[in-house]
Amino acid sequence: xxxxxxxxxxxxxxxxxxxxxxxxxxxxxxxxxxxxxxxxxxxxxxxxxxxxxxxxxxxxxxxxxxxxxxxxxxxxxxxxxxxxxxxxxxxxxxxxxxxxxxxxxxxxxxxxxxxxxxxxxxxxxxxxxxxxxxxxxxxxxxxxxxxxxxxxxxxxxxxxxxxxxxxxxxxxxxxxxxxxxxxxxxxxxxxxxxxxxxxxxxxxxxxxxxxxxxxxxxxxxxxxxxxxxxxxxxxxxxxxxxxxxxxxxxxxxxxxxxxxxxxxxxxxxxxxxxxxxxxxxxxxxxxxxxxxxxxxxxxxxxxxxxxxxxxxxxxxxxxxxxxxxxxxxxxxxxxxxxxxxxxxxxxxxxxxxxxxxxxxxxxxxxxxxxxxxxxxxxxxxxxxxxxxxxxxxxxxxxxxxxxxxxxxxxx
Length: 411
Description:
The chain is mainly α. Helices cover about 75% and strands about 0% of the residues. Helix 17 runs antiparallel to helix 19. It starts with a helix and ends with a helix. The relative contact order is 0.23.
C-alpha cells in the first residue's frame, strides 16, 4: 500500500515532467532510489515491529522536551505540505473525472474531498483502500510503454547506468522533486503506522500491537522476514512504475511536448500503446491513486503529531477514542479540499510539493535514524551497518540536492 501511495498523482506528474523535460536524462534516479527508499522504509517498518510503537511516541521516549518542540514544528510543516499535496491530488482526481467527460474538475475535486473525509471519519478506510488499490492497477498501463512504444533500449540502458546530468536550475529542481516524491516524509510515518495497524489486527494482543520481542523466536524471525519482503516488494513495484512513467514522458518530448501543463497532456504519454483509451487509463490511474493517497497523506502527519502529543491514533480506532488524530485528519482533508477550490494547476503544484518533500526529508530521516539506533528502544533490532550506511547516504544525498536546489533557485 505504501508503494501504491508513492505512485500518487504527485509522483506520476513529477516523473512525466522529468521525462518530457529531459528525455531519459533522469532515468538513473530510478536505479539510485530503489535501494535507498527500500532501506529507509524497512527502517521505519522495523521500528514499528521492534517496539509496537509509532514514530511519534518513540521520539517522546528518546528526545528531550526541547527537541520534541523542534519535531512538532517539523510535523506541523509536514501537515501543511500534505494539505497542499491533498489539494493537488484532489484537483488531479477532478481532472481524471473531467477526462472521462463527467463534469468540471473543480466540482469533482470538492466532491472527492468531502467523500474521503466522510469515509475515513466513519471507519470505512479499509473498504475504500481496497477499491482504490484496484483502480491503481490502471497505472500498470505505463509498463506497456516499455515494450509497445519501441523506445531505444540502448539509450535507456546508457541513461540508466550512467547519469547524464544537465547543470541547470530546472534539472536540479526536477531531481529534488523526483527524490522528494520517492523518499517522501509522509511515507516514513505511514509505513510505521500501517505496520502497527496490521499488528493490532493480529490475535495475539487483542487490539494492541505486539512487538517482535513479545513473540517466540521462530515467529519473530518469520514476521521480520515477511515484513521485510513486503517492504522490498512494494518499493520495487513503485520504482518500476516510476521507471516506466519517465520513459513514457520522454515519448512526449519526441513529439515536441516539453512542459506538461495539464492532465490531458500527461495522458498523451500513453497514446503510443493505448490509443483512444489513453485518457481512460490515465484518468482511472489518477482517480485511484489520488483517492488512495489522500487518507495516507492526511493520516501520516496526524499519526506523528498525535503520537508526539501522547494521544491515541489510527484508522482502527473510533473517532471517540482518537479525537485528536481524527481532527488532524479532517483538517488535512478539508484544508486540501478548500485549497483545491483555488483553481490551481495540479501538475505544477504536484511538482512543487515534491520539491518541498525533498527539502524536508533529511531532517526527518536524521530523527528516525537516531531512534532506530537506540538499543534501549530497539533491542537487537536496532540498525546494523548496512542500514546505517544506506540511510546515511540518503540523508547526505537529500541534503546536497536541497542545497543545490536553493542555490540554483530550482527554476
